[in-house]
Amino acid sequence: YRQFSFYIFPYSTDWLEKQKVVFSILRRNYFIEDYRISQDALCSFLCALEYKYNKRGNQFHNYDHGVTVMQCTHAISLEIMKTQYAHLLNQFTKFVLILSGLCHDVSHTGRTNIFEINSLSNLTIRYHDRSVLEQHHAATSIKLLCAPSTNIIPNFTSVEFRDFRKLFISNILYTDITEHFNLIKNFEARIKELNFGTEDDIKLMTGMIIHTSDFTGGAITIQFEVNMEFQEQYNLEGKFGYPQLPYMKDLDQQPIMAKSEVGFFKFIVRPLWSIMSKFAEDRLQKSVENLEQTILEWEKLMNN
């Protein structure tokens, strides 16, 4: 599970195999031994997480996506451990990062923050329009970690738990797409500095890793699924009279969906992976090349 070519679909219909992937990543990082994680609590936690991810039947924002992002944070971490920045990814930071990758979209509504805000949903009212879904994902996860039956970290001291929670929430909030340009700008500015490595820098670094992992590889089949969610949302917005986002229109038409994807990959995904690869001393170059290939594939579909 250390490869960037990891693909969740062979495990999709087998919940046990999927949980084995998660278990294996935790074990390979020695998290189970180091944090004395009880297997009973871990099984309860993973089952509760999977249920909360899948209860709405989302096409894309489901447990498969959580496991995929977890695997990618693990794979990127392994590459960074071979660089001059290895000391910044200590065992604790790595544990928080990989676990927040798994949990980052739990209990997703299958809609965007803008939809939540326009529909004045309960979540929007609770979180005052700010990173509504991301705050919900973080809070849902922390609640599970506070419940006795699903608490996989009961051995943390109160100080360790506070540090865990602070970084865990920060990581998940960085998956809000509205943070994208700020995150990149701040990260690029900081890695040029000689004193890179402060607590804030580590937050930026793990924020970049989880945000990059959220756009793993760019497989076309995955993008079809997220576009189905967008299409559903566009139709609902029309039905309820909410403002409709132009990029969600006519995504059932292949050339239009392809055009939208080409723009997204060129201006959001490719720059993200390129910066991450540069930081990892070019160790993610193969993924950047795969993205170039994905863009070419979408361009072909766009011109069909």
Automatic annotation (TrEMBL):
One of its GO terms (biological process) is negative regulation of cAMP/PKA signal transduction. Zn(2+) 2 binds at residue 105. The active site is at residue 61. Residues 1-304 form the PDEase domain. Pfam families: PDEase_I (PF00233). SUPFAM superfamilies: HD-domain/PDEase-like. PROSITE patterns: PDEASE_I_1, PDEASE_I_2. One of its GO terms (molecular function) is 3',5'-cyclic-GMP phosphodiesterase activity. InterPro entries: HD/PDEase_dom, PDEase, PDEase_catalytic_dom, PDEase_catalytic_dom_sf, PDEase_CS. Zn(2+) 1 binds at residues 65, 104-105, 214. Keywords: Hydrolase, Metal-binding. PANTHER family: CYCLIC NUCLEOTIDE PHOSPHODIESTERASE (PTHR11347). This is PDEase domain-containing protein.
